[in-house]
Amino acid sequence: MTAPESTSAPAHFIRTRIAREFEAGLHQRVVTRFPPEPNGYLHIGHAKSIVLNFAMPDEFGGYTNLRFDDTNPVREEQRFIDSIKEDVKWLGYRWENECYASDYFETLYGYALSLIDNGLAYVDEQDAETIRAQRGTLTEPGTDSPCRNRPSAESRRLFEGMRAGEFPDGAMVLRARIDMAAPNINLRDPVLYRIRREHHHRTGDDWCIYPSYDFAHGQSDAIEHITHSLCTLEFEDHRPLYDWLIEHLPVPSRPVQIEFARLNMDFTVMSKRRLTRLVDEGHVHGWDDPRMPTIAGLRRRGFTPESIRSFCTEIGVTKSESIIPFGVLERNLRDDLNARAHRRMAVLRPLKVVLSNFPEGETEWIEAANHPQDPEQGSRRLPLTREIYIERDDFMEDAPKKFFRLKPDGEVRLRNAFIIRCQEVIKDDEGTVVELRCTFDPETRSGQPGSNRKVKGTIHWVSAAHAIRAEVRLYDRLFNVPHPAGDRDADFLEHLNPESLEVLRDARLEPGLAPAKVGSYFQFERLGYFVPDVDTAPESPVFNRAVTLRDTWARLEKELAGR
RNA sequence: UGGGGGAUCGUCUAGUGGUAGGACUACGGACUCUGACUCCGUCAGCGGGGGUUCGAAUCCCUCUCCCCCAGCCA
C-alpha cells in the first residue's frame, strides 16, 4: 500500500533491474522492507529509502514490511519505535507487516547452531582488542584465532553456555569461520553474536546474547521472504557476507541485497550521531524542532507528505553520491502548496497606516479569493477600516526606482481593495517612521469598474481593529556553511547559524486565521507558506514559516545594494 | 602499494556503438491586484590521455580524483 498519488516514475537502476527480473520470470511479486534501527528519529534521508521501498512493490505488485532492526539493546528505545511508525504513516505509507529482528532471535539462534555444527562458526574466547589486532589491516591479512579450529562440539557447548548466561559480558563471541586473509575485511571471521546483559525493549531479559547486524539482517530478510533488500552504499562490501550466510544457512528464501546512494543535503547534517548531539546538547528544541531535517521537524515546520514524496522521487536513485541543495526540497513544498493552500493576509512587522479620507468608525467588507487561479476554493470577507497595518518593508522613504511599493507621494494597491496614496510620513524623535497618512481612491475598489486603473505595486494589509496578534517563527538554515559535517578541522557545531530562528511576537493576522488548527496550511500572500505550530493556542496563535515565496525582489535588492 | 564503489551542464539525472536529452538553478522576456504562479526563450556537460571503429559518454588500455571498509554499531 502506498500513498495515493503516483508520482512519475523515472527509470533508475533498481527499477530497471526489477523490471528485467520480472521479464525473465524470476518473481511474481516484490517484497521489500524498511529496516530502521529504533535509536533515533527518522530524517529526510530515511524518507528516500521509504519512498523507494514502498514504490517498488507498488509498481510491480507485492508489499513492504516495516522491520525494526533491534539487535543492539543498548541504543534502542520504545519511543523511537513509536515515532518511526508515526512518521512512516504520516508520509502516507502502510506497511504489510510490523516486524522486529528480535522476533527472530530464537530462529537466529538455531541458525547459529547449524553454522557451528557445520564447522562454519566457532566460539572465540579472546577479548575484543585481541580480535581487532588479529584482524590485520587494510593491506595485511589477519591471523587465525587460536580458537578457530576447536571442535564444533566444543563451540556448541560454549555457545549454549553463552545463551544460558554462564559467561560474563565480553568473555567470548561467536564468529563465522570464513577467511582471515580475505581482502574484504568483513569476511575475516566476523562476529556473529556477543554477550550483552542489557534489558531489551521487547524481549526484556530473555536473552543475554545478541546477534550482530550481519547475522540478523539478511536472515531476517530471508525469513520474511524479502525479494529485494535495498540498502545504502556503505553495506556494499557486506554483500559477500550477506550472500555467504544465506548460502550456508537453512533459510526459507534467498533475498538479494541492492545498494544505492544515501541522501545528502546541503546546510544540514544527516547522521544520527550528529542529530542526536543537536538535540542532547540543546542546540535545537528537540527532535521535532522545525530546523531539524527529521520527518517530525519537517512536519512541524510545515512540509507536507506530498512534497517530501515528490522530492524523493525527483532526486532519483543512483549509486553516485551527491548533495542535494536544500532549496530543491523547498521548491517541492512550494509547488505542492501553491496549488492548494488558501491565501491569507498577515503582516509580520506592522507599520500603521491611517486612511485619512476613510470614514471613522466604519468597516467596509472586502471579498477576497482564497486562491487566485482556482475559484472553486472559494473566498472570504475581509474588514477594511480607517486604520490598517502594512508591512514595514513595503514602505521606503528613499526608494530606488525599481521599488514598486509605497513611497512618499506614491501609489500602491492594497491587495483585494483600493489604491492608496501616501500623503504624509510620521516619525518619532529618533527619526523612525511610525505611521503613514494615506488617502484611498474609492473608485478603485477591486471588482468595481474603476479598479482597472493600474499601479505598479500591490501590498498586503490587515485592519488594525480586527487583526489578531500572533507569534510568527521564521526559520533559516541551521548551519551557515554548505557542508557542516565536511570540515575536518572544526566540529560541525561551530558552523551553527545563530540566526536560524527568528521570533516575531507582534505579527498581525487577518481575523479568519484565529481558529486555524495544527495541520492546516496557508499562503500568507507575498510572504510564504505558513502553518500553525503545535504551540499555537486560540488566544495566542503561533505560526511557523515553512518556506518563503520565491523572491525575485530580494535578489534585485541585494544586487542594488552590491553596487 | 588491500578490497569494494563512484565520476555526464552550476545541481540532480537519462542515455551500454549512430545527432548528449530532461528537470532544477541562473539569465532574458511576456503576463500579473501576490516582485508569487504561469508561459516563452537563452546559457551550460561526457574527469585526463591513448586505442578499437565509418562512428565512442557507451568497448579496450592507462592515469587522476572522490566515497566506503580494520565496532563485540547499524
TrEMBL record:
Its main location: cytoplasm. GO terms for cellular component: cytosol. InterPro entries: aa-tRNA-synth_I_CS, Gln-tRNA-synth, Gln/Glu-tRNA_Ligase, Gln_tRNA_ligase_bac, Glu/Gln-tRNA-synth, Glu/Gln-tRNA-synth_Ib_cat-dom, Glu/Gln-tRNA-synth_Ib_codon-bd, Glu_tRNA_lig_a-bdl. A motif ('KMSKS' region) lies at residues 269-273. Residues 458-533 form the tRNA synthetases class I (E and Q) anti-codon binding domain. A motif ('HIGH' region) lies at residues 36-46. Belongs to the class-I aminoacyl-tRNA synthetase family. This is Glutamine--tRNA ligase. The gene is glnS.
